[in-house]
Records
---
Amino acid sequence: MTEEVIKIEDLKGYYRGSFGIVHAVDGVLLSVNKGDIMGIAGESGCGKTSLAELITGRPIQLLQHEGGQVYVNDLSMYGVDDEVIRKEILCKVMGYVPQASQNSLNPVKKIRNFILDAMRERVGTKPKNKEKVLNQVAEHFKKLGLEKSVMDKYPHELSGGMKQRVVVGISTLWNPLILIVDEPTSALDVTTQKLLIETFIHLKKIGIVETILFISHDIPVLAQICNKCVIMYAGRIVEKASMDDIINNPQHPYTKMLMFSIACFNPDGSAETKLEGIPGIPPDLKNPPKGCRFYPRCSSRLEKCKENYPPFFIPRTESNPVACWLYEEVGD
Ligand SMILES: Nc1ncnc2c1ncn2[C@@H]1O[C@H](COP(=O)(O)OP(=O)(O)OP(=O)(O)O)[C@@H](O)[C@H]1O
Ligand SMILES: [Mg+2]
């Protein structure tokens, strides 16, 4: 039986400030099952980071939870006290590696001191026996391919890949059931990306984490690790499918165009597909269109797409939900 570890129902989160209201996440519906490595993909600004922040139950400043629910292991993240989230959920149940978090390492602190600070902040008290705790951390770091000597280094003495492993190491210290990683590979070269991806696979294989939400705008990166993938566009999810179907059998017009815009090279250096960009730009999320948000850029648009946002439909030959009126005829 599949076990739903994250359930998201009509989730809405907006940034509110002097700049106005940005509808960053605007009605997201999603289920993540135990054991999945689910990719979240989409163009820059489509709301991937905002969605991750909202899933943690306590999003960054300015991003406000406006409606809907997030259940993590059946616990409503917006129905419990901050203390429960901090003590019971974050770290132990859910580890989170925010976008660009390798830059959050304190430049004037050795990694060992940064770890002790992070532990105090997350657990609420200082570890009593520092050396014992740091030895345990070093053992954990070994599983991520980090030498013990890393503990005595300053961030500037580490490569980008090593810094990223350190932040992943800290976020997985408590063996969280779920790990959310936001663009963990985007600042790394291709070889280092591959090594980091192998590290995530290893962490899952040895049971440190069970389920991973892997956010990236880079579909070839997601293809290396994910079994499922959702595509976001302008604050909403437009398609949910297996990773294989997203790449080889996309259904939503946006997903299709996204796949056509990916460079895919054969070993002999020739391009496998003709590269095509997506014409137009995504809508302004301060004033999103009423109907389908992809309508202005869609070559398959129907008249009704302009006024009405499509619910999820299941194409006849598929089992993957697609938010597109083209599939209305074949049932929902
Ligand atoms: N602090 C903020 N204040 C106001 N608007 C914001 C803020 N952070 C993000 N946004 C806006 O919210 C929307 C979603 O942004 P978000 O960062 O979630 O997208 P993303 O998919 O993670 O993009 P990227 O791939 O570039 O990381 C965008 O329109 C963005 O401009
Ligand atoms: Mg982001």
---
Amino acid sequence: MEETSRTASMDAREGAVLVAAQRPREPDWEVGDALDELAQLTESAGVAALDRRICRLRRTDPAYLIGRGQAAELAERARELGAATVIFDEDLSPAQGRNLEDLFGVRVVDRTQVILDIFARRARTSEGRLQIELAQLEYLRPRLRHRWTHFEQQKGGIGLKGPGERQLELDRRRLDLRLDRIRRELEQVRLRREELRRGRARHGWAQVALVGYTNAGKSTLLNRLSGARVYADDRLFATLDPTTRRIELPGRPPALLTDTVGFIRKLPHHLVDAFRATLEEVVESDLLVHVVDAAHPRVDAQIAAVQTVLAELGAAEKPVAHALNKTDRPEAAANARRLGETLPRAVPISAITGAGLDALCAEIADALKDRRTPMTVFLPLGEGALLAQIRREGRISDIRYAEDGVRIEARVPPALAAALAGYAIGRIPERRLDARRTED
Ligand SMILES: Nc1nc2c(ncn2[C@@H]2O[C@H](COP(=O)(O)OP(=O)(O)OP(=O)(O)O)[C@@H](O)[C@H]2O)c(=O)[nH]1
Ligand SMILES: [Mg+2]
């Protein structure tokens, strides 16, 4: 729809000036890194980075973020280079974006918009497209107002609704209707995925999710381990839609390995929210394999960023196996050695050459030994001891009392799962459960 194309706004042929703001005690290398990454993001969005600028902030100007003098210099530079866009590594408030745009006379885009733009380009499935549209519309909503400010300025006294305001109301209502519809559709997607996961869980297959910074090598690893042919490339956010494949593990049944969207520093909040349906594959898995690009100069910052996003998803407590990837590259040697000290179980690998993959599979198999199995059981009255054990050792997600017993959905450790096997039920439809109640 129209609104979407407006935020997916960067023209493939345009060039841009990149800007990072440097806070008073922020070291130079940090700003330099931020700009490097922004340049990579910009390239991934199909826009050429013509120049990079650092603006030192003494205080943040609520109207322009940067100082007026700095803004004037940037405007001059953008004009000189014929840049169609100025891209900020910061998130700009709607007012800042608008003010800077007026000042520069060229389009002003922030980091979030660049990421949204890349996601919009990459989305292939209807699930991916819905999620990115949701994120874009939510980004756009508070920015709608500005398109009508000129009308509002003409309208005069308080309480006089100008034509602009009426149009704005219409736009906003249309947008809210669309947002409602997308949210409903995504809820259906979520339920479908949940159903799929339950089906797999019933087969007893462990579910393992690859997580990691974008470009760490997750897709390459999935391909290598499963013989899949997922698109892998040296660009940010190559993967958007989750892919699940079976992998063989030593000494235990195969597991299902899911490759999904990569993480990044300052991943926009509403993007994380919008991608819930996809990211539930991570939240609901038995084990995470954190793929680390050991050859990256800022590997520690990347690991920290991944942990931040995991916490945001509510997956901070999940068991994690670490894979130190790209060890075929000489730059990785020192990092891998250092990280090996803080993460003693981390496995050095190369998804490209295949080195270390047997050790990684052994580590995954080992970590899965004490995984919890999702189960639905009906415990008759008189099995109070088992009920107490589930409460103690398991994680209960649903519990319903009937007259003759109790129905529980929980994740339980393997030994308890075995003890409960005789009481396991499939998902009993609500009606049958009610029927049982009335029969008694
Ligand atoms: N040298 C080397 N390069 C690797 C290795 N694994 C992956 N790469 C390269 O790293 C780049 C990114 O790989 P992907 O598998 O697409 O990374 P990803 O983690 O799936 O990235 P996103 O989908 O963007 O999150 C590609 O150019 C790969 O060829 C490795 O072990 N060694
Ligand atoms: Mg990928």
